[in-house]
Amino acid sequence: MEADLERFYHRDLGDLWRFDSHGRRLLTLRQVYVRIKGLPPESLLAMEANKGRRPWGAVEFLLADLWELTANRGLKKGRKPARHPARPVSSKAKSPEARQRHDTAMRKHRRQFQRHYAALGVGAH
Question: What is the pTM of this model?
Answer without folding.
Answer: 0.53
